Amino acid sequence: MIINDNFGISYDLSGNLVITIPKSSFQSINLSFILESVEKMIKSAIKSACKTDWKNDSASDIVGICKSEIHNGSTHHDQYIYGL
Length: 84
Description:
Helices cover 37% and strands 10% of the residues. It contains 3 helices and 2 strands. The mean pLDDT is 76.
């Protein structure tokens, strides 16, 4: 997502939000504009990270297709998967 041609938002491999503001922007752009842009970028990132619309999510196609007698798989995951 680009707020300004020079500003960018992305995520690193660990899932951390990374906002890129080139050094030249600090010299040529008003500080209040930079702060407003960063605020908009963070709000947008939060909105997309908290997405609850499953309609266009490919994961919704596989959720619930399997049946099992195990009803506590999340709490005993390692025991069931790895035998620990």
